[in-house]
Amino acid sequence: MTNRLHATIADINFEGILANASGVHCQTKEELAELLASPYVATAVTKSSTKEVRTGNPKPSYYEFEQGSINSMGLPNNGFDYYLDYVSQDHSQKPVILSVASLSMTEGIELLKRVQDSDFQGITEFNLSCPNVVGKPQVAYDFETTHQILTEVFKFFKKPLGVKLPPYFDFAHFDQMADILNQFPLSHINSVNSIGNGLYVDVETEASVIKPKKGFGGLGGAMILPTALANVRAFRERLNPDIKIIGTGGVTSGEEVFAHILCGADLVSVGTELQRQGIGLFEKLQHELLMIMNEKGYQSIDEFKGQLKTM
Ligand code: RRO
User: Which spans are transmembrane here (predicted)?
Assistant: First the structure.
């Protein structure tokens, strides 16, 4: 069963292709351990970590509605050391991905230097796209700064490193960002983070639904699927084949997992729906994906990965 669903990123093998989206079920070691204990989970990604422990933005900072979710968590996390310690332990052969946030260039670089100097040999993911810290724009919407940061980082960073990207909405931006990313030996991109700074309005109460930033927050869940697929596809068509893709956004069933792979995703991660349903969701997703593959006569995801047909 597992060899039908597999992936390789930076020569690290994944048995299965499903993961949590960073931010969901990954703030504590216990939550990460629960993810890794599921036979349907290929890898766990930690909550994005900062140098200092953060409690995050005032609550309520997360809200679910029929078509998706809105959040302005504000990077609550137990601090970089906590997650580095966790990922450095042995997790019975399952890879764990360490997510590091970049609130400032100096802090991001300091943390990545500590990863480089540590015993951790796995994959690190640099989050260039948190939409919810007041006064800190999403780095990856600033192409010059992104290029500058990656240039500095790859002067010393020799371990597998990927980046978490925000969604882009214009071909010029896909082109520009891919040109930048192709200049570096990235292990992967994770695409997409939430669609930044949406606003959900409850007409009955005539109010916004989360407290931080007067209700503005990152959108996730079913409604962002076409944006997520567009980003996975656009980057798969533009990036060097060595840069793998973790597809994130809009997955609620095996059908969307299939669509992400068809667009070129190597791994597929799930946020809002995991928050809704809990870890049992992964068994359902894998079962549904395999049913679709059976119906279509695919033995392995290699037979349709990236093979989207166009008119
Ligand atoms: O913690 C958050 O508010 C958060 C982060 Br760091 C992120 O990358 N994406 C998101 O939707 N929320």
Answer: none
Confirm or reject: Cβ of 272 under 6 Å from ligand 1. Answer: no
CA neighbor of 266 nearest in space, from 72, 43, 53: 43
- Listed in sequence order, the residues at least 6 apart from 216 whose beta carbon sits closer than 8 Å to its beta carbon are 72, 197, 198, 199, 208
> To test ligand 1's pocket by mutation, which of 70, 71, 107 has the most ligand atoms within 8 angstroms of CB?
71
Query: Which of left, alpha, beta for 221 (phi over 0: left; psi -120 to 50: alpha)?
Result: left
Burial of 91 (0-12, 13-18, 19+ CB in 10 A): middle
101 is in which domain, residue-wise? 6-55+75-195+222-303
Average pLDDT over residues 293-311: 98
Phi, psi values for residue 244, rounded to 5°: -85, 170
| CA 221–ligand 1 middle distance (angstroms) | 14
Please list the active-site residues: 130
**Ligand 1 in contact with 48 (CB < 6 A)?**
yes
Closest C-alpha to ligand 1, atom 9: 130
CA dihedral (288, 291, 297, 300) positive or negative: positive
- Residue 205: inside a domain: no
What CATH number should be reported for the domain holding residue 91? 3.20.20.70
Determine whether the shortest distance from the Cβ of 130 to ligand 1 is under 6 A.
yes
Q: What is the pLDDT of residues 131-146, one digit of tens each?
A: 898 888 999 999 999 9
- What kind and span of H or E run contains 282? helix 281-296
Decide if 104 is inside a domain: yes
Q: How many residues does the chain have?
A: 311
Query: Of 2 and 50, which is predicted with more confidence?
Result: 50
